[in-house]
Amino acid sequence: MRIGELAERAGTTAKTLRFYEEQGLLPPAERTPSGYRDYAPETAARIDFVHRGQAAGLTLAQIRQILDIRDDGAAPCEHVRDLLDARLAEIEQQIAQLTALRDTITELRRDAAHPEPATCSPDQVCRYL
Amino acid sequence: MRIGELAERAGTTAKTLRFYEEQGLLPPAERTPSGYRDYAPETAARIDFVHRGQAAGLTLAQIRQILDIRDDGAAPCEHVRDLLDARLAEIEQQIAQLTALRDTITELRRDAAHPEPATCSPDQVCRYL
DNA sequence: CTGGACCTTCCAGTGCAGGGGAAGGTCAAG
DNA sequence: CTTGACCTTCCCCTGCACTGGAAGGTCCAG
User: How far is the CA of A19 from the C1' of C10 (A)?
Assistant: First the structure.
């Protein structure tokens, strides 16, 4: 299977698959005599795994770690668990930060609901920020 | 006042102030005869405004819009209000996405709590992702 | 045998907010 | 007169996951 067909099956682009190969997410593809990449159909499952990892908020580097462990013949379960734990902690922190920011902005926004440009002193940029 | 002193007063670096000037957040500074930038003390207030804008989650480009309006002699109240509204909507959406992601990962994590590598089939990368 | 669809490599850029460091000029103190 | 702190411009680098495009090779149908 050539790269375009695989890309379409996996719901991505040929460009992205070359990029994944370069990043070590896909093993270097077999080549036809003329130099075209030639993929086994199972490769699509690997790309799906990459997509599931992304959907779980993992970076390509993290997904690559999992794939490397698997490619070594080991079960990556524990590493996956650790990555999920770490990601979860990050997300909690991000949510907390965004919630705090939302509260801050909500308050600023309330103060700015009835702007009174006349009361703005010329030596400040904006009373409401 | 030279750039290093202003940077220290405003809690930032000389490098950043040159960058702000390049981005149009600060007007081109006066120069001493030898070419050094020479700032009026009020410039610190403008930098503080930039920092408050950043604390409100605005980009430098958005903060620049506000400053441009103010520099034109107008009151930027309405534009500030619109920017805060837009930022608020973005944040709500980000929180919603992160919350959904957290739930997804929490579920994945629960399934992966007691890994059973033996039950992993060799043709998939990881049962838990 | 020609056109068009596909493939190859390589280089470069995107957005965001700066940071690193080179090569050289300036200024005050000792 | 020299040292060291500060300043100048200049260009490249960071992270992340791609995307765009140029120049050229391959393959198949008509």
Answer: 13
